[in-house]
Amino acid sequence: MVTVLLTALSPAPVSGQRPLAPTPTVSAAHAPLRILWIGNSYTYVNDLPRTLTMLALAAGEPRVPAITAVLKGGQFLRGHTARKELASVIAEGWDYVVLQDQSLAPIEQPDTVLTYGLRLGTLAKQSGAKVLLYVTWPRRDTPQTMGAITATYTTLADSLGATLVPVGPAWMVMRQEAPKAELYLDDGSHPSPIGTYIAASVFYGVLYGKSAGGLPPQAFSVRGNRYLPDTLPMAVAPLTLPADMVAAAQRAADRVLQSTSRR
Q: Where is pLDDT greater, at 7 or 252?
């Protein structure tokens, strides 16, 4: 069952380090950014969208994400595309649409990622949205597959004129610089709270064109889909992460974004 949930609350993606220009419909200084997330458990475990919103609130950003998510555990973009109602959801008009395929798809089925990512991304662009591609991480025991994941999403970005959000590469930097950090849950696939915090830090950098350094060390520890209709981020108790791990996560995000020159 696909879950479509609305969180009340609002930024803009960057290419490299510069924020993308806001769409005309959200040009007001304090207008929320309407973000539609299309993906699976790599997005909802530990509530990545809510963690991102908390960072924006803590930073005092005037435009905080207003998030809607269409998520299903293990789902492929192919599976999302097959649901007729999704086209109507995309057509509602979003500022940004985030696309995230099943974790192994970019490695094992790159052509399906490109086919269905292009289909959904084209619908998003036709509705006036900018497209963000959530570049995920490899399984814990196969770090060598990071290159294939990045290559697939990069090809899709080139086809769509989309913006890459290099979460997986930031994980790889974190694994090298803070090897004691446990980024994975026990399954060696899904993110731990610090893994999700890295992802939120990268999204923050892409959306706002600035570092998440110095923002509060708060995330969530949620293994199931805890999205609730009309629930503000502060209504869900956060988890406080170790300060040294958070600083390392922020540095990893910064390093990857600083080296990114794509769109």
A: 252
The first and second tokens of residue 74, run together, are 């293990």
Closest CA relative to residue 214, chosen from 168, 249, 260: 249
CA 79 to chain centre: 19
3-class DSSP assignment, residue 240: strand
**pTM of the prediction?**
0.86
Whose structure tokens read 């994980």?
A: 171
The token pair at 164 is 């890459």
As a whole number, the mean pLDDT across the chain is: 86
Phi, psi of 75 (to 5 degrees): -75, 145
Q: Are strands 218-219 and 239-240 parallel, antiparallel or unpaired?
A: antiparallel
The angle subtended at Cα 233 by Cα 228 and Cα 236, nearest 5°, is: 70
131 Cβ contact list (under 8 Å, min separation 6): 96, 97, 99, 121, 124, 125, 160, 161, 162, 163
- Alpha carbon separation from 76 to 48, 69, 101, 166 (Å, rounded): 18, 15, 5, 19
pLDDT in tens, 174-233: 999 999 999 999 999 999 999 999 999 999 999 999 999 999 999 988 776 555 444 555
Distance between CA atoms of 38 and 237, rounded to whole angstroms? 25
Who has greater pLDDT, 29 or 178? 178
| DSSP conformation class of 69 | E
The rounded distance, in Å, linking the Cα atoms of 155 and 162 is 10
